[in-house]
Design brief:
Elements (H helix, E strand, L loop, with lengths): L2 E4 L12 E7 L6 E3 L7 E4 L6 E4 L8 E6 L2 E6 L6 E3 L2 E3 L1 E4 L4 E4 L2 E9 L10 E2 L2 E2 L3 H4 L2 H8 L5 E4 L6 H10 L8 E5 L5 H9 E2 L11 E2 L1 H4 L4 E5 L6 H13 L1 E2 L8 E2 L3 E6 L3 H6 L5 H7 L3 E3 L9 H12 L9 H9 L5 H15 L1 H8 L10 H7 L4 H23 L4 H8 L3 H11 L3
Parallel strand pairs: 4-5, 15-22, 15-23, 16-19, 19-22
Antiparallel strand pairs: 1-5, 2-3, 2-12, 4-6, 6-7, 7-10, 8-9, 8-11, 11-12, 13-14, 17-18, 20-21
Length: 438
């Protein structure tokens, strides 16, 4: 029997199907149960970040990820050495139904699906300053609530523009350190020569140009939280000193022989694959182990499309404008856009539109508006989605648009909209409720 251990990490997919999935080795008990409430795809591999750790020489550190969706268990290979197979076929992305076999390296797992209706997700559209009401985001809120109350080192992973710093500050503001400092240090903007001084401070005369004593980020954050943005860009020697501080709470200013103590919660963020950086020896394995004791994965905006209208309206309110400030045609183009720059790109698009208007915005950007000329099918195809997932997304988009137009024509009256569309009022209510969460 393969040596299988289950890591107790808050690393967890993105759908709320009315079923659960159980995965079991062919020669042992179940090692994983998915019910759709997981906050991120479940990582499987041999590395410390994996929720399911398979101790087998054929399994890569981050081998694949599993996600429960309506079509079954979505399996995505993560560039593993020995491949991921579904029913004997090597796959990049595939769906495993009831009775399927998933082979991860040499470890084979059986999939069992059963009917299951899970608890409702939190009815919330934000956590602190982080905004989102989609199913994908509401599944993250319970995890954030638990992490806010803790003082664990925390790693936030996500593409550029997904809101990692916003989440870090929200965790700080919702926790017991809320009245203490929240200090941000962007590891991409400090030179290697000054990085140690920025982190730990220096004494007068410690180096050329050090004309006065300076407190570093750790001292400034004492009692509070230090947010290390893009920690993957930190040099290896500094990683060792950071690990010492996490382990002992001690550091030394440059030019000083005196050890100082600081009570600091460290929240780090990265757009990089730190597991791969460990393999490439550009990131310390022991530091990575400390950081992934608590892990948050922020999905890109293209994976949480239901939040595009929510975010547009949020940015408009923040600017003191009404939802009508963005016309329907522009919104439709934005709904279809892939948003490679994520939430940051959407926020800038709203701000640019309010400042310049549609035509001036496009001329200033030197391009067509996001999503212009791009049909829904084109947008879904551009994401390289499997057919079942693309069909599901297209159906959800059609329902949202149909319900919105029917309500607009009926002046917001649900009963009238139901009569005019020939849909039973109860079913129309269900469509209306579902359109708010997809």
């Amino acid at each position: 029997m393969h040596d299988v251990t289950r890591a107790l990490l808050p690393v967890l997919p993105t759908a709320m199907p009315e079923m659960r999935a159980v995965l079991s080795p062919l020669d042992g008990p179940a090692i994983l149960e998915l019910d759709g409430r997981e906050a991120a795809p479940t990582l499987v591999g041999s590395g410390p970040a994996c929720a399911i750790c398979l101790v087998d020489a054929t399994v890569s550190r981050r081998h694949c990820e599993l996600d429960l969706v309506e079509a079954g268990v979505r399996v995505r290979d993560l560039g593993s050495r020995n491949g991921t197979f579904v029913d004997g076929v090597r796959v990049e992305v595939a769906y495993a139904g009831h009775g399927a076999r998933i082979r991860i390296g040499a470890v084979e797992l059986a999939v069992s699906l059963a009917a299951h209706v899970g608890e409702e997700l939190p009815d919330a559209d934000h956590f602190g300053g982080f905004v989102g009401a989609s199913t994908e985001i509401r599944k993250i809120y319970p995890l954030l609530t638990r992490l806010a109350a803790a003082s664990l080192p925390t790693l936030i992973e996500g593409e550029t523009g997904t809101g990692k710093e916003v989440v870090a500050e929200a965790l700080h503001r919702a926790g017991p350190r809320a009245n203490r400092p929240f200090v941000v240090l962007d590891c991409t903007t400090i030179s290697p020569a000054l990085a140690e001084s920025e982190l730990f401070g220096h004494e007068r005369g410690a180096f050329t140009g050090a004309v006065a004593r300076k407190r570093g980020a750790f001292e400034l954050a004492d009692g509070g939280t230090l947010f290390l943005d893009e920690i993957g860009d930190l040099d290896l020697p500094l990683q060792a000193k950071l690990l010492r501080l996490l382990d002992r709470g001690e550091f030394r200013r440059l030019g000083s022989e005196t050890a100082r103590r600081a009570d600091v919660r460290v929240i780090a963020a990265t757009r990089r694959d730190l597991d791969r950086a460990v393999v490439e020896r550009t990131f310390r394995d022991d530091l990575y182990h400390r950081l992934v004791s608590a892990r948050v994965v922020l999905p890109p905006l293209r994976a949480r499309r239901g939040d595009v209208p929510v975010l547009i309206d949020y940015f408009l309110r923040a600017a003191g404008r009404s939802p009508e400030a963005i016309p329907f045609a522009t919104r439709a183009a934005w709904y279809a856009h892939v948003w490679p720059g994520n939430v940051r790109e959407l926020r800038l698009a709203v701000e640019r539109f309010l400042a310049l208007g549609a035509e001036e915005t496009d001329a200033a950007a030197g391009r067509a508006p996001p999503g212009a000329g791009l049909s829904l099918v084109d947008a879904l195809f551009a994401e390289n989605l499997p057919l079942p997932e693309a069909r599901k997304r297209a159906s959800e988009a059609f329902e949202r648009r149909y319900v919105a137009l029917a309500l607009a024509r009926a002046g917001g009256n649900v009963s009238k909209a139901a009569r005019e569309t020939g849909i039973a009022r109860r079913h129309f209510q269900m469509l209306k409720a579902r359109s708010k969460t997809t």
